[in-house]
Structure formats: structure tokens, C-alpha cells
TrEMBL record:
<dbReference type="InterPro" id="IPR003593">
    <property type="entry name" value="AAA+_ATPase"/>
</dbReference>
<dbReference type="GO" id="GO:0005524">
    <property type="term" value="F:ATP binding"/>
</dbReference>
<feature type="domain" description="ABC transmembrane type-1">
    <location>
        <begin position="19"/>
        <end position="288"/>
    </location>
</feature>
<feature type="transmembrane region" description="Helical">
    <location>
        <begin position="246"/>
        <end position="267"/>
    </location>
</feature>
<feature type="transmembrane region" description="Helical">
    <location>
        <begin position="160"/>
        <end position="179"/>
    </location>
</feature>
<feature type="transmembrane region" description="Helical">
    <location>
        <begin position="50"/>
        <end position="72"/>
    </location>
</feature>
<dbReference type="GO" id="GO:0034775">
    <property type="term" value="P:glutathione transmembrane transport"/>
</dbReference>
<feature type="transmembrane region" description="Helical">
    <location>
        <begin position="133"/>
        <end position="154"/>
    </location>
</feature>
<dbReference type="GO" id="GO:0016887">
    <property type="term" value="F:ATP hydrolysis activity"/>
</dbReference>
<keyword id="KW-1133">Transmembrane helix</keyword>
<dbReference type="InterPro" id="IPR003439">
    <property type="entry name" value="ABC_transporter-like_ATP-bd"/>
</dbReference>
<keyword id="KW-0813">Transport</keyword>
<dbReference type="InterPro" id="IPR011527">
    <property type="entry name" value="ABC1_TM_dom"/>
</dbReference>
<keyword id="KW-0472">Membrane</keyword>
<dbReference type="InterPro" id="IPR014223">
    <property type="entry name" value="ABC_CydC/D"/>
</dbReference>
<dbReference type="InterPro" id="IPR027417">
    <property type="entry name" value="P-loop_NTPase"/>
</dbReference>
<dbReference type="Pfam" id="PF00005">
    <property type="entry name" value="ABC_tran"/>
</dbReference>
Length: 569
């Protein structure tokens, strides 16, 4: 119910259109009842062959009700659909606002295909919430109650029959089908999520699947997911058709009861025979408004599942209480005490009892074998993840109090994988800072040995037309253009040759002379300039000190250095 209440709040934002939809829906429904009621009375009255002038008023009412019905139905459709489309826009905005604070770590818990299914399929499913769930019961109750009050003037017994019919078609039958619908809707959503995941992985991994000759297996799995989704949709469709049929059958049976009861009352003299056809026509017409109730259970469960999947993301992620914003123009230092971390749904500890101090303005290198926790430690410093236990301080402020976007705003970050958008070199560099001049961007390209690049050179999606080294150099240029006081570099030159790497580091270190710089590297050459070197293995710090201190100690770092010399000479 929490998720449905959020949906109701979003619907309430369009209260003007909602009220107009209900008003015109009521007008259309009552006009239809009035149209058929006057038609029934006109037929009965005409059978007695009255003077023509006696029927003129009834004919005028028929035309008036017909016009009012058409106008009301058009206006009801217009305002209800406008409210729906605006509501969908509000839902997308609300979902993005819910998702955006957790974006860096959301892919640990959710696969990209699943997120795509939520933001596309689930949002589209919620278009039926107002039109099929929120709006019909309100209009149904108002029209039925008005009709029952009118009918009670002629026969209390028939009014009671109509009231029982309302309970059956509006509450009892939909409730029975809703019990079955919950299981069906759950399977449909799961099948759609699996299909979306398989399609996304198939598209992203097509090249690798082709190279390793696994394309057919993946295609078969995708076809199985598609077939499963189609089967569940067919079951859902059959359930809706059956529910609609039962609801229609009940409404027709109620009309037969009205006819039989009315005939009995006429025979007893308790009802004027002129009104019998009118009451029967009313019963046939008023239950047209109960038709949407037949599919309400399926749409209600659909809306519950969709809203639950959309709005549960923030509840399942770690809530961030950070409110402190970092100021600019200063270097930043870190201190970690007893920090442990493991990824969700993974038993292995990625970091264990990490104790580390990184002074402001210092240069720190993190080295160690692959999988030792270096990159994860950087992500904790950037607050992409939060530690399981232990304390992390940034400039004497506890990390949990600092807004993570404030940290990212004050950082020059180059990760192992950097995203490049479809466009030009200029557009990808302009992500670093607003109001960059062409000369500044060209200088940055020259600093990373990309002087041959022009700013209007095209960049394909994910930088597919760039080599690994060009991607890394373009990412470094972007970081240099940002020009903040905290540098977070994770293997920034792993795909760059040694000579180019040395030139880039000279310029980079010159720019970051007074800044805090933290570098993750597998290469041990060129670390002599570092203020401290942190050696990690299996999630723990095994050594730390300057380059000369570690070499003199002849421990883990010394052994790594000797192996590197043996391999590379």
C-alpha cells in the first residue's frame, strides 16, 4: 500500500484534470442512463398512442441527453488522458530522482536490463493506474448511487436489486479474480525482467559471443525467455477476458431479475406499467459503468507490482545522510580506521581492517597484485560505496556526513573504465567544466600527447573508434581540465607506452604539485616521487612507507620490484 499511496500522491498533483475527468465522466454516464431511461419510457408511452405534442418533450430530452453524452465522453477522455500523460511524466521524474543518488552503486544490486525494464515497461504499465484503477470506481459509485436514488422513487425493491448488482459487479467478482491475478502478474513481471536482461546482455556482448562461438546458445536462451514472457501474457489476457465475461454475465442476470421483479410488481399493481421498460433500460445501461471493474483487479495488481519495483530501489539501497558540502580552493586529506568492506551478496571480504592516513597535499601510491582491494579503496574514498564498519574521515569530517556529489565535484577522477559519449572530442572534454575555450582544450590534448587530435573529431559511442591508450589519455586530459585539488587515478596509463607515460606524469605532477594525489598502479617504476606507497594484498595493507624505506626494508614491495626488473629488465 505504500507504493500505491505514492502513486495516489502523483495523481493528486493533477487534481484539476482529475476533478474534470470525474465531472465529465459523471455527466457522460448519467446522460447515457437518462438517454436509455427516456427511450424506454417513450416506447411505453407511444404504445398508448397519445397526441404527438405529448411526446415532443420526451423527444427533445432524448436529443439533449444524446448531445450531453457525446460531449461528456469527449471531455472525459480528453482530461483523463491528459492527466495520465502528465502523471507518467511525473513518475519518470520521481523514479530518476529516486535512482540518481545511488547511481554509482546501483549496478551492484540491479542489472542494467532489469533497470531498463523498470523505467520503460513498469512506467508504461502505470498509465492504466488512473484510467483503469483510480478513476473508474469513483465514477461508478457516483453514477450508481444517483441512479439508485432515482430508481427508488418508482420501486424500492428494484433499487435494492441494483444496489446488490453494484456490490456483485463492483466488489465481489473483482475481488475473487484479484486473488488469482496476483500470482499471474508476478510471473509476467519476472518474465519481462528476464527477457530484458537477456536482450541487453545479448546486444552488449554480441561481439564476444560471436568470437567465442556462443551466439547460438545465447540466442536460444533469449528465445526461451521470449516464449516464457508470451505464455505469461497469454495467461494474463485469458484471465482478463474471463473476468470481463463473468462480470458481464452477472450484470445481465441482474437486468433479468429487474425485468422479472418489475413484471411481478406491475401484476400486483405496485408499479405503473409505463415505467417497466424504463427501469429495465436503466439496469442495462447503468451496468455499462461496471464493465471497467472487471479488468480492475489485473490493472490494480499490475500497478502494485510496477510501482513496487519502481519505488523500492531507494528503500533497498543504503540511505545516504550526507549533507555537508566541501568548499573549493583547498587540498583534502583522508584518514581510515578499521575499515571493512564487502560487496552485497558476496561473502568474501574485499577490505579488512584498513588503517591509513593520507595527508592533504601528499602524493600516495596504492600498489599490489590484482584483486587486492586497491580500486575498491578508491571507491570508498569517493563515497561510491560505504564501508561495512570502521571510520573514514575527510579533512576531519566523518565521511557519512559529507554529500557524495560534493566529493565528486572537487575531484579529478580517472578510473580503469571511462565513459565517452557519442559526439566530438570537444563535447567529451567539455564535461570537465563549463566555459572551456578551444585553446584550453587543445593545450590539454597536447599535454597528454594527443596533439594530432582536432576538437571536431568524432567520438563513437563508448569511444569505439579510439584505442585503449587514446581513451586513457583523453580521460586524463578531461581530468586535467577540471583542475580540482583532489586527484583519484586508477591505473590511468595501463594502456600507454612507457615513454608517453613518463611525459604525461611529468605534466600531471607539475599541475598537481600542491594537490592531494592518490594513484593506483601495477607498475612500480616512477614511484620514487611519491610521499608514501601503500602495499596491499588480499584486502589488507601489508606495507607502507616511502620508496626508499620500502626498498631498504626488503619486504613485499622489494620482492615485487625485483620480479618487475626480472620480467621487464
Amino acid at each position: 500500500m505504500k507504493d500505491i499511496s505514492q502513486m495516489i500522491k502523483l495523481v493528486a498533483l493533477e487534481k484539476k484534470d482529475v476533478l474534470l475527468s470525474i465531472l465529465f465522466g459523471f455527466l457522460a454516464g448519467m446522460s447515457a442512463v437518462g438517454l436509455f431511461a427516456s427511450s424506454g419510457y417513450l416506447i411505453s408511452r407511444a404504445a398508448l398512442v397519445p397526441p404527438l405534442y405529448a411526446l415532443t418533450v420526451l423527444i427533445a430530452f432524448l436529443k439533449l441527453f444524446g448531445f450531453a453524452r457525446a460531449l461528456g465522453r469527449y471531455a472525459e477522455r480528453y482530461y483523463s488522458h491528459r492527466a495520465t500523460f502528465t502523471m507518467l511524466s511525473n513518475i519518470r521524474v520521481a523514479f530518476f530522482e529516486k535512482l540518481e543518488p545511488y547511481a554509482p552503486r546501483v549496478f551492484q544490486k540491479y542489472r542494467s536490463g532489469d533497470l531498463l525494464a523498470r523505467i520503460v515497461g513498469d512506467v508504461e504499465s502505470l498509465q492504466n493506474f488512473f484510467l483503469r484503477v483510480y478513476y473508474p470506481p469513483v465514477v461508478l459509485v457516483v453514477i450508481f448511487l444517483s441512479t439508485i436514488v432515482f430508481t427508488s422513487i418508482f420501486s424500492t425493491s428494484i433499487a435494492i436489486v441494483l444496489l446488490l448488482g453494484l456490490v456483485l459487479t463492483g466488489v465481489f467478482v473483482p475481488y475473487l479474480f484479484s486473488l488469482r491475478q496476483r500470482t499471474i502478474e508476478n510471473r509476467v513481471r519476472e518474465s519481462r525482467g528476464e527477457l530484458s536482461i537477456d536482450v541487453t546482455e545479448f546486444l552488449f556482448g554480441f561481439r564476444d559471443l560471436k568470437i567465442y562461438q556462443q551466439l547460438e546458445d545465447k540466442e536460444e536462451r533469449m528465445h526461451e525467455s521470449s516464449a516464457s514472457y508470451i505464455r505469461e501474457q497469454e495467461r494474463e489476457g485469458m484471465q482478463r477476458i474471463f473476468s470481463h465475461s463473468v462480470n458481464t454475465l452477472v450484470s445481465l442476470l441482474v437486468s433479468w431479475v429487474v425485468l422479472g421483479l418489475g413484471a411481478y410488481l406491475v401484476a400486483r399493481g405496485d408499479l405503473n406499467g409505463l415505467f417497466l421498460a424504463m427501469l429495465v433500460m436503466i439496469s442495462l445501461t447503468v451496468f455499462e459503468n461496471a464493465t471497467p471493474m472487471a479488468v480492475l483487479p489485473s490493472h490494480l495488481e499490475d500497478s502494485k507490482r510496477a510501482s513496487g519495483r519502481l519505488f523500492s530501489i531507494g528503500d533497498e539501497m543504503i540511505e545516504d545522510k550526507g549533507r555537508l558540502h566541501l568548499g573549493g580552493g583547498e587540498s583534502y586529506g583522508f584518514e581510515l580506521s578499521g575499515v571493512d568492506f564487502h560487496f552485497p551478496e558476496e561473502e568474501r571480504q574485499t577490505l579488512q581492517q584498513v588503517n591509513l592516513k593520507i595527508p592533504a597535499g601528499s602524493k600516495t601510491a596504492l600498489v599490489g597484485p590484482s584483486g587486492s582491494g586497491k580500486s575498491t579503496l578508491l571507491q570508498l574514498l569517493l563515497k561510491i560505496h560505504t564501508s561495512d564498519q570502521g571510520d573514514i574521515w575527510l579533512n576531519d569530517h566523518p565521511m557519512e556526513r559529507i554529500d557524495e556529489e560534493s566529493i565528486w565535484n572537487r575531484s579529478n577522477v580517472v578510473l580503469q573504465e571511462n565513459h565517452f559519449f557519442f559526439g566530438t572530442v570537444r563535447e567529451n572534454l567539455q564535461l570537465a567544466k563549463d566555459d572551456l575555450t578551444d585553446e584550453q582544450m587543445l593545450d590539454a590534448l597536447r599535454d597528454v600527447e594527443l596533439g594530432s587530435f582536432r576538437l571536431d573529431y568524432p567520438v563513437f559511442e563508448k569511444g569505439e573508434n579510439l584505442s585503449g591508450g587514446e581513451k586513457q589519455r583523453l580521460a586524463i586530459a578531461r581530468a586535467m581540465l577540471k583542475g580540482e585539488q583532489l586527484w583519484i587515478l586508477d591505473e590511468p596509463t595501463s594502456s600507454i607506452d612507457a615513454l608517453t607515460e613518463r611525459k604525461i606524469y611529468e605534466r600531471l605532477f607539475n599541475q598537481a604539485e600542491r594537490d592531494t594525489l592518490i594513484l593506483v598502479s601495477h607498475r612500480l617504476t616512477g614511484l620514487e616521487l611519491m610521499d608514501q606507497i601503500i602495499v596491499m594484498d588480499e584486502g589488507t595493507i601489508v606495507e607502507k612507507g616511502t620508496y626508499h624505506e620500502l626498498m631498504h626494508k626488503q619486504g613485499y614491495f622489494y620482492e615485487m620490484k625485483q620480479i618487475e626488473k626480472t620480467i621487464f629488465g
